[in-house]
Amino acid sequence: MVHAILLARVPRGEVDDLVQEVFLAALGRLPGLRDEGAFGGWLGTIARNRAHDYHRRAREWTELPENVPARDRHSPNALAALEAIRMLPEACREPLLMRLVEGMSGDEIAARTGMTPASVRVNLHRGMKQLRQKLDLRDAHGQ
User: Fold this and answer.
1) What separation, in Å, do the N-terminal and C-terminal C-alpha atoms of the chain show?
2) What is the CATH number of domain 1-59?
3) Which range (50-54, 77-81, 107-111) has the least confidence?
């Protein structure tokens, strides 16, 4: 779930480090969690806040030499799908990534996010419909 939340919000190359930061932050704050049933939503909030912090921080950039090998091992289709998902409404992005990337079931998504199973189903259905439209539109334009 944390991976999917971050994948929906930050560049792919930053996700792994931020996942680790989220769990370190959660571990430090765990004694303050009053309701164990709220753990999934609480952890999701930490992940969203960490993504927000990522975008607020000023980043220093260093130009890399041209001969540095590319790290990207993902297919162009996977990258296009991820970019299309990132353009969807927020309510659809996270559940879709939890389903498609993390392989979570609708019930697992509901349990971890605090959403109702019906809301998860609706968001997955709407998200998939919009995703298909975006990807079909890209294919029609030769992108």
Assistant:
1) 30
2) 1.10.1740.10
3) 77-81
